[in-house]
Amino acid sequence: MQQVSDKLIELRNKMDIHGIDACIIPSEDPHLSEYPSQHWKIREWISDFTGSAGTVVVTAEEAGLWVDSRYHLQAEKELDQSCINLFKSGEKDIPSYEEWLISTLTPGSKIGIDGRCFSISKLRSLTRKFRTAGIKIDPAITISEEIWDARPPIPEDTVFMHDEKYVGSSRSKKIHAVRKSMKRNNVSHYITVSLDEIAWLLNLRGKDVPYNPLFHAFLIIDYDQIKLFINPHKLTAQIAQKLIVDEVKVYTYEDFYLHLADISEDAIIYIDPERINSAVYSTIPQRTTKKEGISIIADLKSQKNRIEVENFKSTLIKDGVAMIKFLMWIEDNFKSENITEYSAVKKLKQIRAQNSEFKGESFATISAYAENGALAHYKAEKSNSAVLKEGSLFLIDSGGQYPGGTTDITRTIPLGEIPEEAKVDYTLVLKGHISLASASFPNGTRGCHLDILARKSMWEYGINYGHGTGHGIGYFLNVHEGPQSIRPEDNGIQFKPGMITSNEPGIYRAGKYGIRIENLILCKETEETDFGQFLEFETLTICPIETSIIKKELMTTTEILWLNSYHTKVNELLSPHLSNEEKIWLEKKTKQL
Question: Judging by DSSP bridges, how do beta strands 268-271 and 289-292 pair with one another?
């Protein structure tokens, strides 16, 4: 196995040949995926760091890995710091990799990047920052992957159809909706490299990417045809025939950039600078008009239709049944069995898999006991995961992929008696969760306006959390999808009926515990008044919220009524699918406060 030091020597030799003073290697692939396939895990290959997010920077003399707080501990274990320095982003006096490069390089230096793995917006941002220091960026450098001799190929798995009983809208209707939006925007072409957008539009799914049912492809849409760039052998004869009917013409995956270069200079092309890689932009003829805005498909697929919502609700009952079995197993056995964070992950997956519709996990399960729960994206490893025992909290954040929806749920449960401080914190998290879940707000409201609802109770105690409160979720697609989100930063996206988003406030005390309560919520219309149309959330996730550690005196009457009503619904919907023993357990867990 090639050592990191040897890889860096080869890379630096190539950098010298190309006249490059530094190389930036991100986690993304040409589709800007959250979870790239092994073929595109270049940053992981060159550094041995396996976390899903991070950036490696290599100069002639030094190398560094930048990771946020989710991965500090993991990076410490996996990184050979004799070769690559660890920069813990977010800690005091730790520079960003841009700041570090500016202080390390001299004016006239050149930085090499693979523009396929940087969004248009990101490249523009980097260019502005480095220009002030007299440093140039060459976005056509692929030397980091050129030295990867035993590189895994792009997966060859066959694409499959997303059954019509689940989709709620045919391929032709979706294509018509995209073209209708193109006309409103006065553009002739629409380009997408996002795998979830392509899968959604074509009502197809795949197995190329971990946790997400996607396949590698590119797409160019105009008013006469759709060009799908995919390795043709991934399509069955039946799927290929159906695509022909909808005027989808198939080209090889590798020919995408050649077709971009051939687009007419008279065309008007619509692109989302956040979701299109910069190589696409630079390949399109320079004189061709480019119009930028929010991804058309991302906007369309964020609003689930009636059939999708109905299937989502049915799926969340199935997932809720699995969670009941798991939570009951933990409670009944943690004292007598040697249950670890890692074995708990395996058990939950095993329980979900008892349902024939379960297609796999939607992300790497966060199974965290005691102080590990304070790491917002902690990943338990078999070799050193904590044993569940009395005296602290256990946080489990997990999800499943089903044809009828993608799930994401977090529950925090006490194992034995816990400190009074933890009970107060738990209650504050619950209050924030209920406040957001029960919100009523006018049409035009954005996620940044709603975020404070989840934080207000904590702020009154001088407490806050460092992550967003909610993210969009896909329909048998990505567990994290846009364009909507609920967080302090304003992304300009208004909430619309049909959007399904997570509701997940939390409190994290370093060295002690972490608390998070997460459900999925559906945005829908409520009353229309003299002041306009109002919207509200409906909680879709069906699973009891732990009540034994609530400080009831901190709860308002309205909050207690919400929780009691939610638990009545949970009991009614799950009980028919449970054994007598499980029904008794659930009745106890949903007992009215």
Answer: parallel
Distances (CA, A) of 464 to 409, 467, 550: 21, 9, 19
- CA 413 from chain centre, in angstroms, equals 24
- The full set of domain ranges for the chain reads 4-146, 160-300, 303-589
Which stretches of 353-408 are DSSP H helices? Answer: none
pLDDT of residue 144: 81
* Residue-level pLDDT at 156: 87
C-alpha to C-alpha distance for 82 and 469, rounded to whole angstroms: 38
Domains 160-300 and 303-589 share a fold: no
- Sign, CA dihedral 346-347-350-352, equals negative
Q: Alpha-carbon dihedral of residues 478, 483, 484, 487, nearest 10 degrees? A: 90
CATH architecture label of 303-589: Alpha-Beta Complex (3.90)
The Cα–Cα gap between 218 and 448 comes to 32
Q: Is 492 exposed, middle or buried (0-12, 13-18, 19+ CB in 10 A)?
A: exposed
* Sheet strands side by side (includes 366-369): 366-369, 392-398, 409-415
d(CA 472, CA 495): 11
Q: Give the architecture-level CATH label for domain 160-300.
A: 3-Layer(aba) Sandwich (3.40)
Question: Above pLDDT 90, what percent of the chain?
Answer: 89
| Model pLDDT, residue 52 | 83
Cβ neighbour number for residue 124 with a 10 Å cutoff: 14
Hey, is 57 helix, strand or coil? Answer: strand
What token pair was written down for 79? Answer: 């990184």
Over residues 35-69, the pLDDT tens digits come to: 899 999 999 999 999 888 899 999 999 999 999 87
Which residues of the chain have a pLDDT value below 50? none
Residue that has been written with the tokens 């813990």 in this structure: 88
Specify the CATH number of the domain 4-146.
Answer: 3.40.350.10
pLDDT of residue 383: 84
Whether the CB-CB separation of 474 and 481 falls below 8 Å is answered with yes
The residues that bridge with 533 in the sheet, in sequence order, are 528
In the numeric block, which tokens belong to residue 462?
A: 């001088």
Q: Which residues contact 561 (CB under 8 A, 6 or more apart)?
A: none
Which SS3 state, helix, strand or coil, does residue 119 take? strand
| Number of Cβ within a 10 Å radius of residue 199 | 25
